[in-house]
């Protein structure tokens, strides 16, 4: 006959044993510790100065003083001093300090997860407080779903989707204690903040973005009283610069500018932008749409048609023309070619959509000048009718 029980290692009364009450009392005291196990502290290295009777502690790996040599065991204070019990994997105890259940796994007391409690009924008997033995989730210090929670992230979820649904309306509230606090959502990449939205240090709604250095810039602020929106870092909005009109294409294939008055009133035609070979001349006498420094020219788009089928394609150049304030830009200026495209098709005499990407950031206030010539030989003067527009993003305010 063995001296102890196989599971809890309780002392057994032996046949013809004297002082059987001693062995019996030892077993009762051990049961008093492990039944409805309650643990006052974990991974402790030294005994507390004034323990309460029956208080039980989970010892660290190398405790000292009266606990020396008892690493990993449970220590219970009683009338005769400390009693030590070696816990086994699977034991469940109540953490009185953290107000949570813990389970012994691989020699470590881990917080009992909901999955542990709901698997095989293990948590049903220990969790208590709920129908069918469910865990009591009222006032829990934290919750981790697929990952571990910590003191900063009391609710932690690891997954790809989350669903909140209702038979009626649904509201998610993010509350802050004072106006100077934040009530916000943070969007991150590899845990580095990239954007914030919410009540950011004030009661007006705002959006901020962060660069790689972690510097935040305020992009949007909406006044809670008036509803007015501000863009503290500036705003770039879409802008369309229309240039409708007619192009007179000479039989010699020289470069031409847009007709004067854009087709309104008496028309004259500008065909002095250069010869049929090479690029347009550098002296422009027409004015084009004005663009501000910081704007971005996205594309040239619109519809065009030729008045005769022998004009089936055209070449186009677009320039950003600028100069010093007070100078005559036609002679004393700087120009940058921002679009060069040859052989843009407009076959027949029907309307054709033209969509030519540009992608130019305007470095200085200036004008957009456009020149056009036929790509194909034409018998005589031909016309291209057009309704074109430069699509832009405005400069930040």
What does it look like?
- With 397 residues, this protein is mostly beta strands.
- Strand 3 (74-78) and strand 4 (81-85) form a beta hairpin.
- The chain is rod-shaped.
- Strands 10-11-12-13-14 form a 5-stranded antiparallel β-sheet, with no helix packed on it.
- It is built from 3 helices and 22 strands.
- Among the domains are: 182-230; 238-393, Jelly Rolls (Sandwich), CATH 2.60.120.
- InterPro entries: DUF2793.
- This is Ribonuclease III.
- Pfam families: DUF2793.
Produce a short descriptive summary.
With 397 residues, the chain is mainly β.
Which features does this protein show?
397 residues, mainly beta, Jelly Rolls, 5-stranded antiparallel β-sheet, 4-stranded mixed β-sheet, 3 helices, 6% helix, Ribonuclease III
Global structural class: mainly beta
Q: What composes the largest sheet?
A: 5 strands, antiparallel
Largest sheet strand order: 10-11-12-13-14
Q: Average pLDDT, to the nearest integer? A: 85
Q: What is the CATH first-level class name of the domain at 238-393?
A: Mainly Beta
Q: From the alpha-carbon coordinates, what is the Rg to the nearest angstrom?
A: 41 Å
Span from first to last CA?
91 Å
Number of strands: 22
CATH architecture of the domain at 238-393: Sandwich
Give the helix level as a range of percent. under 10%
The helix/strand series, from N terminus to C terminus, equals: HEEEEEEEHHEEEEEEEEEEEEEEE
CATH topology of the domain at 238-393: Jelly Rolls
Uncertain runs: 117-134, 261-266
């Amino acid at each position: 006959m063995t001296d102890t029980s196989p599971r809890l290692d309780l002392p057994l009364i032996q046949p013809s044993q004297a002082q059987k009450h001693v062995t019996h009392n030892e077993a009762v005291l051990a049961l008093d510790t492990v039944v409805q196990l309650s643990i006052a502290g974990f991974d402790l290295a030294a005994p507390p100065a004034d323990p309460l009777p029956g208080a039980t502690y989970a010892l660290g790996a190398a405790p000292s003083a009266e606990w020396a040599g008892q690493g990993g065991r449970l220590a219970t204070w009683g009338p005769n001093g400390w009693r030590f019990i070696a816990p086994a994997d699977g034991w469940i105890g109540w953490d009185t300090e953290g107000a949570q259940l813990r389970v012994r796994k691989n020699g470590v007391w881990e917080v009992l997860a909901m999955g542990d409690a709901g698997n095989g009924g293990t948590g049903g008997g220990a969790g208590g407080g709920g129908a069918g033995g469910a865990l009591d989730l009222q006032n829990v210090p934290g919750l981790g779903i697929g990952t571990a929670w910590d003191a900063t992230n009391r609710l932690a979820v690891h997954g790809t989707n989350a669903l909140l649904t209702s038979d009626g309306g649904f509201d998610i509230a993010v509350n802050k204690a004072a106006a100077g606090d934040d009530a916000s959502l943070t969007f991150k990449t590899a845990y580095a903040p990239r954007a914030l939205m919410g009540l950011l240090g004030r009661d007006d709604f705002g959006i901020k973005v962060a660069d790689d250095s972690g510097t935040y810039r305020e992009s949007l602020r909406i006044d809670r009283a008036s509803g007015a929106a501000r863009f503290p870092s500036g705003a770039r909005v879409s802008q369309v610069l229309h240039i409708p009109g007619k192009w007179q294409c000479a039989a010699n294939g020289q470069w031409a500018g847009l007709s004067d008055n854009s087709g309104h009133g008496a028309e004259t035609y500008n065909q002095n932008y250069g010869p049929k070979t090479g690029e347009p001349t550098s002296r422009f006498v027409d004015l084009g749409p004005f663009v501000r420094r910081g704007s971005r020219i996205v594309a040239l788009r619109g519809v065009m048609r030729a008045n005769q089928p022998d004009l089936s394609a055209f070449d186009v150049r677009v320039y950003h023309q600028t100069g010093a304030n007070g100078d005559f830009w036609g002679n004393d200026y700087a120009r940058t070619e921002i679009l060069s495209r040859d052989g843009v098709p407009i076959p027949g005499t029907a309307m054709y959509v033209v969509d030519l990407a540009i992608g130019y950031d305007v470095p200085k206030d200036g004008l957009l000048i456009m020149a056009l010539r036929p790509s194909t030989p034409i018998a005589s003067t031909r016309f291209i009718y057009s309704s074109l527009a430069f699509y832009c993003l405005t400069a930040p305010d």
